[in-house]
Amino acid sequence: MTSSMGITMTLANSIIGVSVLAMPFCFKQCGIILSIVMLLLSSMLSRYACHYLLKAAIMARRRNFEFLAFHAYGPTGKFLVELCIIGFLMGTCIAFFVVVGDLGPAIVAKTLGVDDSSRLRSSVLVGLALFVVLPLGLLRNVDSLSAISMATIGFYVCLVLKVVVEALPQLLAGDWMEKVHLWRPSGIMQCIPIFSMALSCQTQLFEIYESLYNASLDRMNDVIKAAINMCTGVYICVGFFGYVAFCTQNFTGNILMSFAPTTSSEIFKLGFVLSVAVSFPLVIFPCRASLYSLLFRRAIVYHEGASSHIPENRFKWITIFLVGASLGVGLLIPNIELVLGLVGSTIGVLICVIFPAAAFIRVSPKASSERLAAQAVLFTGVLILFLGTYATLYSASEAASTKLDVPLESGKLLHKGQSGVIKNKLLDKNIAGEVADTLAKAQAAVDPAAAVNNKKPPEELVVPDAKQPAVEVGPPAAEVRREPPVPGARQEPPVPVEPPAAPAEVPVAAPLKAVTAGAPKEEAAPVAAVHMDVAPAAAVEEPPKAEAVAVAGDPGQGQVRAEAAVKVQDKHEESPQRQRVAEDAIRKEDSELAEAQRQADSEKERKEAELLETLARHKQEQEQLLREQKHILHEMKQQHEKLQAAVRTSGVCCVWGMPIK
User: Fold this and answer.
1) Residues sharing a CB contact under 8 Å with residue 180, sequence separation 6 or more, in sequence order
2) I need a labelling partner for 381 at 20 to 30 A (CA). Which of 49, 113, 293, 615 fits?
3) Strands, E, within 132-241: which ranges?
4) How many whole angstroms separate alpha carbon 367 and alpha carbon 174?
């Protein structure tokens, strides 16, 4: 058992994640006052959700998500909750590896003077997984991480001080109020996924509760309140001072990338990587429990007082599987940010907001003001689910339509990723600013009016390097790897980048039409493609009818269509069979659960009968002992009376212990 301070630090470490790096971006999008209001509302929502989750578990006498779901919604609810927790937390682990893989190799390459290659990325991830993540993940108790959690919170305090130092020049100048937004509701949709999940810790709540000495609902509420208030203060400080420090720059969602390239900045990047690495166990603990409950359900009895202890061998193998699977996905398939963003904005809200309120409403016996407040939390969670999913899909579509043209000194292109934060636009800000100023001055010298109208931000200027024969062009945004969100303890849905201004239209539609009319059919397609690149989307007209006629006249195409129709028909014929197989599997699972419940009930009845028999036997033994004691007392009384009669007849008396005749 640990003190309340250690438990508070561990819970705070499970709350703070990569979302802290996105706070300046959120303050920029929503304004300072609106962002603070959103963070305060998010803290209230998280506190209420944690309270309802714990109170429902205490009322039902179930101490984890799986048992509580089984008590409230039966085997189906338990199965769905297990799948949601495993998917959500596995996505978080993968997101952690992606974050470390994007930040760590650059730091190691700069420190050791080697090339930043894919082999270095793999080596860094494997090394951290073997020597940091796996040893910490094999710990059984959360209270073993108290010292590490305190060190991590200390790093975030140092990060706040670093951001304050960066903001001092703007604060001392006194003109920062004119450069920032105080209230900007137009950016709220982009930041709802981050604000809603920035303070969530529900998946780690039961592990923390079991480690609390003399645990009770009031003591745990105090711990939750202290941890959430601490994290809210860190978020507000980083967001406010980070926004003020870089209000004159076009920064993105990773505030570390806006720091000047100094030794202290590299130390802070390394510290953030290590803080993410040591936070893995807080995600592995609940994920391991859910996976064990899903795979070995027959070994678990779902009644009051049942133990969730995992045998040693299964404990080790499940931990190794979780670390290895998340590492493998992070190494082989790093570009899965959209899927992870959707998982965080849907399953994360389901587990962290909707399920706690729904479970409390289900377990609560009667209507009350607290039940009404839980219904309000449930409605808010459903609203956040739809708005967060819409914001994630919208940001993905915007990113797919925006091209990133950011060349580096070495000729390579680095990417922006998303994970609740827009990731790593790894561009040297000083060089970009000098290039932008030089071009702006040259353009102003030629035509001042055109220079003002056509001014672009530094990150959109592409300057070729004279030393290199060619400069690579940035890939489309759909192919750019974005950092995935870190749900729960760290999962935040992606933060979209503000799309750049639309380029001015070039009036070339009429000449292209003339060229197209005079060209043969074989050359019409290339000209149309050029027209689509230059003209607006609304002005492009495609000839679908001609293509349809050409396809209809092809006999091979008709055969392909017939084969496709046969495949579709076979698929429709197979679907009822698959449905029957699924129904059989569900019925089999329900029967297994019912059989397990019957076995548990019979075992309980047998133990109760044995207990009653033991109590009856003990009662008989006690009655026999009582009778024997009464008999002994009766004999002693008779002997005492005989002794007194003998004394009277003998005429012997005692005075001060001396016999006198």
Assistant:
1) 28, 31, 32, 243, 244, 247
2) 293
3) none
4) 55
Assign domain 4-400 to its CATH architecture. Answer: Up-down Bundle (1.20)
Contact 31, 183 (CB under 8 A): yes
DSSP 3-state assignment of 549? helix
The pLDDT tens digits of the residues spanning 5-16 come to 889 999 999 999
Question: CA 568, CA 423: separation in Å to the nearest integer?
Answer: 42
Report pLDDT for 253: 79
Could you tell me the two tokens for 468? 């290199």
pLDDT band at 392 (very low <50, low <70, confident <90, very high): confident
Q: What is the pLDDT of residue 644?
A: 82
Where helices occur in 246-279 by DSSP H, the ranges are: 263-278
Q: Looking at the predicted structure, is the pLDDT value of residue 531 above 70?
A: no
pTM of the model: 0.62
Q: What is the largest CA-CA distance in the chain?
A: 159
| Angle, CA of 84, 228 and 159, to the nearest 5° | 105
Assigned token pair, 639: 């002997």
Name the residue ranges covered by the structural domains of the chain.
Answer: 4-400, 506-539, 613-661
CA-nearest of 123, 152, 120, 122 to 136 is 152
Strands (E), 37-187: none
Query: What would the two tokens of residue 518 be?
Result: 């005079």
